[in-house]
Write a structure and sequence with these properties.
Elements: H1 9-27, H2 39-72
Helix pairs in contact: 1-2
């Protein structure tokens, strides 16, 4: 089997967005209330944003993995 190193942009984007999503989800534990934004709104916003980022990251990783496998079969 020939395992050449190729540039996989979806894999790189997937790692970046997944890591960023995890950072946002972890930051949810450190949300504090301000006079303008209550705690619940900050937590919900972080959960939504972190979940979306993590979802995009996982989708990109899966797409990159599928592309890598597709290139190896001669398609």
């Amino acid at each position: 089997m020939d395992h050449k190193q190729t540039f996989e942009p979806f894999m790189i984007l997937g790692v970046f967005w997944s890591a960023f999503g995890l950072i946002v989800l972890i930051a949810t534990f450190f949300v504090r209330a301000t006079p303008q934004v209550p705690v619940l709104r900050g937590v919900v916003t972080n959960l939504i944003a972190g979940s979306l980022l993590l979802g995009v990251g996982i989708a990109s990783l899966l797409k990159g993995r599928a592309d890598r496998r597709g290139k190896g079969t001669g398609h």
